[in-house]
From TrEMBL:
Belongs to the peptidase C56 family. HSP31-like subfamily. SUPFAM superfamilies: Class I glutamine amidotransferase-like. It comes from the Bacteria. The lineage of its organism: Bacteria, Bacillati, Actinomycetota, Actinomycetes, Micrococcales. This is Type 1 glutamine amidotransferase domain-containing protein. It comes from Promicromonospora alba. Transmembrane segments: none annotated. InterPro entries: Class_I_gatase-like (IPR029062), Prot/Nucl_acid_deglycase (IPR050325), ThiJ-like (IPR032633). Keywords: Glutamine amidotransferase, Lyase, Stress response. The keyword Lyase applies.
Length: 234
């Protein structure tokens, strides 16, 4: 059975464009649906954060402020409660070796924009995984974490690769809008990624070799399924 490293942000706030702090965390559906899909298929999923810090759920991902129906929010919360012990004791990224995993999976929420985007330990893991052709998946704002992957000469490891992320339009429609410190899609384009997007809020997954990316929370299950399919084909 495959062994997957799920990397979560340790941030609970994000500095907005105007300098104010905004509460944040991981997006409930992206962790719950992804983890459930992966483990239901028999995968072992280890959780890791910078410093081994317990991750924080973004509370708006569990109510109508995040456009989440009450029934869906209850389902996500119940699943997160069922893995609370694992969430409470994640591995530290600095202690993790890419060689120990068949895939690296990065869910979103705005939190990765605060820490994973420039985390040296994650960058090390992603560059090593890319070199070994290990499957790497990033979902929604989790794609910002790919920016941490710089080669020794300072190049972006995923330049020229096709991928998707939470789009600029989605950020304007239902994200932080003008408050966002940067636009994930734009930042990835500027580093040389080839962005492929679906219509806003559609389930959209893009695969380019060992790199699998999902556009938004609606893409959570499809992204996890694409990872399972890629691992089964190895």
């Amino acid at each position: 059975m495959p062994k997957i490293l799920m990397v979560l942000s340790a941030a609970n706030s994000l500095r907005l464009a105007d300098g104010t702090a905004h509460p944040t965390g991981y997006w409930a559906e992206e962790v719950a649906a992804s983890h459930r899909t992966l483990t239901a298929a028999g995968a072992t999923v280890d959780l890791a954060t910078p410093g081994g810090v317990r991750p924080t759920v973004d509370e708006i991902s569990l109510d109508e402020r995040g456009g989440v129906a009450a029934a869906d929010a209850a389902e996500h919360r119940a699943y997160l409660d069922s893995i609370a012990g694992r969430l409470a004791q994640p591995l530290a990224l600095s202690d993790v070796r890419a060689d120990d995993y068949d895939a690296i999976y990065i869910p979103g929420g705005h939190a990765p924009m605060a820490d994973l985007v420039s985390d040296a330990d994650l960058g090390r893991l992603l560059v090593a995984a890319n070199t070994r052709q290990t499957t790497v998946a990033a979902l929604c704002h989790g794609a910002a974490a790919l920016l941490s992957a710089e080669t020794p000469d300072g190049a972006f490891a995923y330049a020229g690769r096709a991928l998707t992320s939470f789009t600029d339009e989605e950020e304007r429609q239902g994200g932080l809008g003008d408050g966002t410190p940067f636009l994930v899609e734009t930042a990835l384009r500027e580093r040389g990624a080839v962005i492929r997007t679906g219509v806003p809020w559609s389930s959209t997954v893009v695969q380019d070799g060992n790199l699998i990316t999902g556009q938004n929370p609606q893409s959570s299950t499809a992204t996890a399924e694409a990872v399972l399919k890629a691992l089964a084909a190895r």
